[in-house]
Amino acid sequence: MSNEKQYIFGIILFYLIQRLSELVLNKTNERFLIENFDAIEIDPDDSFRMRAFHSLWFIALIGESLWHGKLINGELATFAFIILIIAMLIRFHTISLLRELWTIKIYGLSPRPIIKEGLYKIIRHPNYLAVILELLFIPILLGCYFTALFFSLGNLWILSKRIKLEESELETNPDYNQEMKNKKKLIPFIY
Description:
The chain is globular, with a radius of gyration of 18 Å. Helix 1 runs antiparallel to helix 2, helix 3 (75-98) runs antiparallel to helix 4 (126-141) and helix 4 runs antiparallel to helix 5 (145-170). The longest helix has 35 residues, at 3-37. It has helices at 3-37, 44-68, 75-98, 126-141, 145-170, 174-180, and strands spanning 40-41, 107-108. It has one domain (3-180): Four Helix Bundle (Hemerythrin (Met), subunit A). By secondary structure, it is mainly α. A two-stranded antiparallel sheet has the order 1-2.
């Protein structure tokens, strides 16, 4: 295996380990929510779609990398690395703010707390912004443009449904609309 392929698969392995560690955290947080809030998963089909989609993304990324993946270089590579670092910081920031509330599934909670600190001061769903950036820029960095395009479009479709579902749950707290009415969903000042 060439050095370039080793770097490519090292990057993929890094993100795979990150996702697997998030699954462990997710399970811990799910137990906490169920035990302390009598939390109930809102839409198991949504969770299945997300798991299947992200699994297929990894499979496509590995497949396209094997087929013709090539690390990009120059200014685009620098830009992609910067965006991926920002995405990772957004993800860690979001997880640290949500603490035990952070899960992959959407749970119904009563009472439903509202997070107002950090990035939540300017957007409603910073974790989804991190996911959008990662699903686009990891494949670009690896020269996997089909995966970048196809799965980014699919991710936008899935997230549009998921955000509606999550917003309907968050709105069970009457203060949510008042607190978030002037905040964009994903991109500050735009959307």
